[in-house]
Structure formats: C-alpha cells, structure tokens
Design goal:
This protein is 43% helix and 14% strand. The termini are far apart. 42% of the residues are buried. By secondary structure, the protein is of the alpha/beta class. The longest helix is centred in the middle third of the chain and has 29 residues. Strands 3-2-1-4-5-6-7 form a seven-stranded parallel beta sheet, sandwiched between helices. α3 packs parallel to α4. It has one domain: Rossmann fold (3-Layer(aba) Sandwich), CATH 3.40.50.720. The mean pLDDT is 97.
Length: 262
C-alpha cells in the first residue's frame, strides 16, 4: 500500500482481547493498514486461527496468549514482545474479563464481585499501560496507546431499551469505563513529554444478534438510526494510532452514531 499518514507500515500493534467482536475487527484493520499485528487472547486456538486468516490475505499477524487478569502474564508478555520486535509501537486495551455474575442488579451485587471486576478490568488495563508505556519511554518510541471505553462512560443508560429482554447495563461496567476514560487523560498528560500519545475510544452499542425489540429501541436513540458494526469502531482506533492523529492525545473519541449528542 502507498504510505500515507494513515498507514502503519513497519509498526508493531498489540490488541488485547484480539479474538472478541471488536478485537477481531481491529486486528484485521491494523493488518490491512500495514501493521504487524499481534493478536492476544486467552484462547490460543482462536488467536492462531485469526492470525492464519490475516496472513493468508498477505498481511502480517501472529498469535499470542495474554491474560490481563494475571500480573506476570502482562509483565512477561510486554518484555518478551518488545524484545522480539524492537519495541511495541501501538497498544490497544480491549480485553473484557468479567465474573460469572456480571449483570446482577446493582442492589444485589456482592462486594467481592464488584472488587473482582474492577481488579480484572480496570487494574488489568492499568498494569498493561504501566508496562508498555514504560517500555516505549525507555526505547524512545513515539508510541500510541488506546483504551476502549464506552459511551456509558459519558452518559447514563436508558434502561427502558432493555425492557422485555434478559439484557441490562451492568453497574460495574459504568464504574470501570468511566474510570478508564479519565485514566487515559492522566496517562496522556504523564507521558506527553516523551512524545507518547494516549487516547480512548467510546463506542456506542455494537450489533451482535441482540433481541429485535432491543435493537429497534436502541436504533431510535441514535442519529444514524442503527447500531454500530465492529468495523465502525475498528477504523477510528486505527486512525488514533496513526501519524494522521499525531497531534491528538488525551482525547475521548466518541463513536456512537450520535447517541450522546441527542
């Protein structure tokens, strides 16, 4: 591909939770933009299958196991991956670990469950940020990190869209994503003097086979009248990691079809 400020040729990009709904789309988009993408997931087989798919189309990808709920997994992965690739240029925190009681009504959430979810998601992201941003700094890389947050980090949920379904918006999700959004701003200020950029992306609802009644109600909340496709989120993430966004840091890019603007 012809190099432009949007191209990522020669860059190493790591996506956590790389085999999820959004992670898969991000990995494909990074690879299509010229990056060497490292697909990380707790499921090695899924990661390797996605890597084979991407490489079969002529792009660069490899699979790796990374568990963001395990401190040693994070620390060793960053160290070994950076050494093997002469640094990590791009890191996207996208993994979504959660407990089996995720979605319990707020008044019924056991304190231990809330602490566990904050520890797995928010603290897991924080250690990933610490490890990779310090490695970027030590190597003198002008890297980019993106935390995947949510439009629910910005606004309260409209609970009526869930009526008649088994779905809900978990309280822990709002707690975690809101914290990550402001933490991204903190990191952007902290590492700005190193030339490292940190941003967050706040996706709106992504279609994933939800009940038709929910989809119809949700669509009515957006200006564009539809839920997002995974690719709608992936390409804005790629933009933030490219030189085309070289003067963008500390920003929360809202990709929600206009929901939060209404």
């Amino acid at each position: 591909m012809t190099d432009t400020p949007f191209a990522l040729t020669g860059k190493t990009a790591v996506v956590t939770g790389g085999c999820g709904l959004l992670g898969t789309a991000m990995c494909r988009a990074f690879a299509a933009s010229g990056a060497h993408v490292i697909i990380t997931d707790v499921d090695r087989d899924k990661a390797e299958a996605l890597a084979r798919e991407i490489t079969s189309s002529g792009h660069h990808a490899e699979a790796a196991v990374l568990d963001i709920t395990d401190d040693e997994s994070i620390i060793s992965f960053v160290r070994e991956t950076a050494e093997a690739n002469e640094g990590i240029d791009i890191w996207v925190n996208n993994a979504y670990p959660r407990t089996s009681d995720w979605g319990t009504k707020f008044e019924d959430i056991p304190p231990a469950s809330l602490r566990k979810n904050v520890d797995m998601q928010m603290n897991g992201y924080a250690l990933c940020c610490q490890s990779v941003l310090e490695d970027m700094k030590e190597r003198g890389l002008k890297g980019s990190l993106v935390n995947i947050c949510s439009h629910y980090a910005l606004v309260a949920p409209t609970f009526s869209v869930y009526d008649g379904t088994e779905m809900t918006m978990p309280a822990a999700y709002s707690l975690i994503k809101g914290g990550l959004l402001n933490f991204s701003r903190y990191l952007a200020a902290y590492y700005a003097q190193c030339g490292i950029r940190v941003n967050s992306v706040c996706p709106g609802g992504v279609f994933d086979g939800q009940p038709p009644s929910f989809v119809e109600r949700y669509n009515d909340l957006t200006m564009l009248g539809r839920m997002a496709a995974p690719e709608d989120i992936a390409w804005p993430v790629v933009f933030l990691c490219s030189d085309a966004a070289g003067y963008v840091t500390g920003h929360s890019l809202v990709v929600d079809g206009g929901l939060t603007a209404m």
